[in-house]
Structures are given as C-alpha cells and as structure tokens.
C-alpha cells in the first residue's frame, strides 16, 4: 500500500512540474508577442501623422486639386487602405508648403499598401476557388479514362486550351473545362495542369508513371512529371453544342492562294459554319475560313494577318459566302487555342537590366504581363506574391522579385527608393476613371469578378475614390521624376493597336520575336483574364465632386508628361 502511494505521489509531482513548465512557456510567449506589437505601434506612431491632424497642402496642389493621401489615411491598417474621410475634400487654399507635394510619400504608406496587397491576395483565393469546391461535390466525372501518356510541354499533343490551378485542380474540373469548349480529350499533368485536345497522344507510358496526386482532390491521379492522365470526354454539358464557342472574326480579303496559306482544306456542298468549325477543330486549328463551298483551316500569318476586315460591307461578305466573286472569305475562331506562343520559361541567365512593369492598380498590369509573356516566351515577375495569379499560370509570382530570372517585374510602388532599384521601366497608364472602377472591382470580387450594387452604393466607394485618385496621379509623377529610362504605354493605345505597341514593348525589353508569334498573341489577346459574371448596371458611379477632383489630377499628369517630352494623355482622358 505504501509503495503504491509513493508511486502516485511521484507521478503528481512530475505532472505539477510539467504544468508549471507549460504555463511559464505560455506566459513568456504571450509577453514577447505583446512587446513586439507594442514596439510596432510605437514605431508607426513615431513615423506617421495623427489621423485627425491635417498635413500642410502646397500652393501647387490647391491649384490642381491634389490631396496628399496621408491626410486621408485611416490609422487602421488592413484591406480598408487609406480610408479616412466621409466626403471628398478640397485642399485648403491658404496653406503653403514646398513644391514637392505628391512626391513626398512616406514609408508607412508604402508598407500599408504592401500589407494590403498581401492580405488581399490570400483573402481572395478562397473566393475564386469556391466554385471549384462546389463542382467537386456536384459534378461527376464525365469522361472515360484512356491511359497514361508521354507529355512534352513544348510539342504538345493536346493542343487545345490550357488551364492551371496549382492548388485546387481536380479531374472533374479539367474534364468540365475541356467539355465546355467542345474538346474530345482532357489530360492532366503535374497534379495541377489541364490540357484539352481532339487528338489522342501517340506515345503511351506505364500506368504507374502517372503518379501525381491532384492538388485539389486527395486520392485522385492527375498525371505525373512529363506524363498525362488522359480522359475521353463522352458527354458535353446539357444543351451544349460542339460549335457553341465559335466566334465570328469578320469578312476578310482572301489571300491569293488559299491552299498554300492554309494547311488543311475541305470542299463540301451545302457547307455550314458548324461543319467547317468542327472539321478545323478536329484538325487542331484555331481558324475556320469559309469561301463558298470551301473550308480552310489554319493560323493567322503574315500572309493572312486578319486585319482590315470588311465586316461592315454586307454585300462583300454575302458575296464571300455565296462564292459570287471569291475575293472575300468569312473567318471564324474555333475553340482550339493557338499554341504557337504559349510556351514560357524563366531566363536561362540572370538579366543584366532590371526592368519594372509599373502601373497604378487597375491599369491592366496583369493583361500586359499576359501579352509580354506570350510575346517573349519568358515569365514576368512580381513585387508581390499573388496566389490567385500563380495558380492561374503566372509562375513568376513565386520567384523572388529580385532574382532577375524574369523578363520584367510587376510593381505598383511609387517611392523613390523602390523606383531607383530598377534600371528601366515600362510605365503603363490607364484612364483614372476606368482604373478606379477596375481596382474597386478587384478589391471586392477578385481579378475576374464585379463588385455588387451594394458595394458601389456603400460608403466604401467615395472613400476609395477620395484616397486612390491621388495615388493614380502621384504614381505617374514619381516615376517621371525618379525613373531612369521609361517607356510610356497607354492602356487604351495598347488595346486599340496591339501589335505596334507590343512591338515597342518587346524591343524595349531587348527581345526579338517573329511576326507569327505576335499574331498568335493577338489571336489570344484576352487570355483567361476577362471579367465574367454579373456586370454592374449602367449607372454613373462618379459624382460631380469626384469628377472635379479626378479631372484636376488628369490635367496635372498630362502637363507633367508633356514637360518630359512624352506625348500627353489620350483624348478620352479629357475631363468629362
């Protein structure tokens, strides 16, 4: 009995010691965390300006309506960046300061921006993958497993659309995406990449070589390293047709020799668009060209660049369709992706010139990166890590922004230190009205969605305009002041004249590309980054007070550009 009591007493002593040790460790960790937070608050308080204290506004700002964002800044960090006032404020007319006005952005503002971008990127990932999770539970596999095949990313057998989701890829997601675009086969590789096509790969591999687990579905196989798990998509979604994604490109003058221009042809009495499109899709070509009873398949080339269409002339197009004169042809875009410009890689040697792709948020930076990557064949980097973009194929997102393994680096920064780190920069400028709306959409609905009516009518919108409009102006002005070598590109010019402007950008990056590759980029100009979903209704989100403020910024930036011997802002920026 005494022996048992002694063992119990020994056990209790050990337990007490263990509890005491755990409690002490817990208290020490909490104290360290508290001290760290206190130090951070003290540092920010010593650097920043009190929320209720207005900064002096220079005379130059009063004449153009510029507001220093620090006067609008909220003391609360996080996604509600730079929200401070209830209504738009005009600068005080009697306050004077040095002529540096918008150039003096402090480190606290830039830290808040970085924190906002990082936090927002992580917050948006669950939103953008919510649909994928739902599909995983509601959609059954529609295809039949064919087998494991060899996969070469440079010479792909499945030459249709390509999709990436490096976190949530499933077999059902890939099959659904390929079926929606009327492809016959869906293939998965590396656990996260989806390829579509109409021709079965020729080289089969051992079944055990397809051993990569799907990133978004445990227990399912999504190919392997240089291996494809291929499924035959037997059924399309209810109500879908194989030609439902065919897009009419226009009526164009036919080349002199159609047979030499297009690699595949078909002559069919009573030829229809559906017949020609399905024929060209099976042949893995992105264009279906119809002239009378002739169907031709191919790519945009120097001999047939798809420019100067005659779509407005109904008689000519009708003549092309009925083979009245044979000088014109109808052109349709098939669901097949033009793959001549989809191969991308990191630079084999570190770049000697450190180039920035700089823009205000919402100015089309992601779209410009898509164009640059497909035109040059090299990945672009980013000053931030956006998980949503990385999951969609921008692999440079995960590479360190100073690695110099990417052709250029995306940045929204505008501080003197950040700007002078780059040797040169492409400065992308967009109409501030459009930029503010695009960034507001991204803030509340991600890269591809639209903000709701509730968001637009909330207090967030005027606060957003009040703070971000000055950032649009200061971003351009600071890059003009501190940038070493600049190429100014206006988003609207790039959209209207894609090939000439893209040539300028590629030459600025010191990369040589072929005409066919640029035409391929033009053929895939939108990529996967067009907004979808319920677009906001036709309404004017900007009040007259907002317009007055933004218009002053526009005039200031236009004058600064002309002062540096650049062309001014496009006419559509003119105050409305």
UniProtKB/TrEMBL annotation:
Organism: Platysteira castanea
Gene that produces this protein: Wscd1
WSC domain location: 142-234, 245-341
Gene3D superfamilies for this protein: P-loop containing nucleotide triphosphate hydrolases
Domain of life: Eukaryota
Alphabetic keyword roster: Repeat
Pfam family, one: Sulfotransfer_1
InterPro entries assigned: P-loop_NTPase, Sialate-O-sulfotransferase, Sulfotransferase_dom, WSC_carb-bd
GO MF, one example: sulfotransferase activity
Stated name of the protein: WSCD1 protein
Entry's family note: Belongs to the WSCD family.
């Amino acid at each position: 009995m005494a022996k048992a009591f002694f063992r119990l007493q020994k056990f209790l002593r050990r337990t007490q010691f263990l509890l005491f040790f755990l409690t002490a460790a817990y208290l020490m960790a909490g104290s360290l965390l508290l001290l760290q937070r206190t130090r951070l608050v003290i540092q920010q308080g010593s650097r920043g300006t009190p929320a209720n204290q207005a900064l002096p506004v220079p005379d130059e700002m009063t004449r153009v309506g510029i507001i220093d964002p620090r006067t609008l800044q909220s003391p609360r960090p996080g996604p509600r960046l730079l929200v401070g006032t209830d209504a738009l404020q005009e600068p005080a007319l009697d306050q004077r300061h040095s002529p540096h006005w918008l150039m003096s952005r402090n480190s606290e503002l830039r830290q808040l921006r970085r924190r906002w971008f990082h936090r927002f990127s992580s917050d948006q990932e669950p939103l953008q993958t919510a649909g994928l999770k739902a599909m995983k539970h509601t959609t059954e596999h529609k295809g039949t497993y064919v087998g494991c095949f060899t996969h070469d990313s440079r010479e792909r057998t499945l030459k249709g659309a390509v999709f990436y989701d490096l976190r949530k890829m499933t077999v059902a997601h890939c099959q659904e995406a390929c079926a929606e675009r009327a492809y016959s086969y869906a293939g998965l590789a590396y656990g996260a990449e989806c390829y579509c096509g109409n021709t079965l790969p020729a080289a089969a591999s051992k079944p055990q070589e397809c051993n990569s687990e799907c990133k978004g579905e445990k227990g399912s196989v999504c190919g392997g390293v240089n291996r494809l798990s291929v499924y035959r998509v037997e059924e399309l979604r209810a109500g879908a047709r194989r030609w439902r994604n065919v897009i009419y490109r226009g009526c164009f003058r036919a080349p002199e020799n159609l047979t030499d221009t297009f690699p595949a042809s078909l002559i069919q009495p009573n030829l229809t668009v559906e017949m020609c499109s399905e024929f060209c899709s099976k042949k893995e070509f992105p264009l279906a060209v119809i002239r009378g009873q002739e169907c031709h398949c191919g790519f945009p080339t120097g001999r047939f660049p798809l420019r100067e269409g005659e779509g407005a002339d109904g008689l000519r197009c009708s003549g092309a369709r009925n083979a009245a004169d044979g000088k014109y042809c109808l052109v349709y875009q098939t669901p097949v992706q033009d793959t001549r410009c989809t191969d991308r890689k990191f630079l084999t040697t570190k770049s000697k010139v450190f180039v920035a792709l700089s823009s205000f948020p919402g100015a089309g930076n992601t779209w410009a990166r898509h164009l640059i990557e497909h035109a040059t064949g090299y990945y672009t980097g980013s000053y931030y890590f956006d998980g949503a973009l990385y999951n969609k194929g921008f692999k440079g997102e995960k590479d360190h922004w100073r690695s110099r393994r990417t052709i250029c680096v995306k940045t929204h920064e505008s501080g003197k230190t950040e700007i002078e780190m780059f040797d040169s920069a492409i400065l992308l400028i967009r109409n501030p009205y459009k930029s503010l709306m695009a960034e507001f959409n991204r803030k509340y609905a991600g890269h591809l969605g639209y903000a709701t009516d509730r968001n637009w009518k909330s207090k967030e919108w005027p606060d957003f305009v009040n703070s971000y409009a000055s950032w649009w102006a200061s971003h351009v002005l600071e890059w003009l002041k501190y940038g070493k070598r600049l190429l100014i590109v206006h988003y609207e010019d790039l959209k209207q004249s894609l090939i000439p402007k893209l040539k300028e950008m590629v030459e600025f990056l010191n990369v040589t590309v072929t005409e066919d590759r640029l035409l391929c980029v033009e053929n895939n100009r939108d990529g996967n980054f067009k907004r979808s979903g319920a677009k906001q209704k036709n309404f004017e989100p900007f009040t007259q007070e907002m317009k007055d403020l933004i218009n002053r910024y526009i005039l200031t930036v236009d004058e600064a550009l002309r002062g540096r011997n650049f062309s001014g802002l496009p006419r559509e920026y003119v105050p409305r």
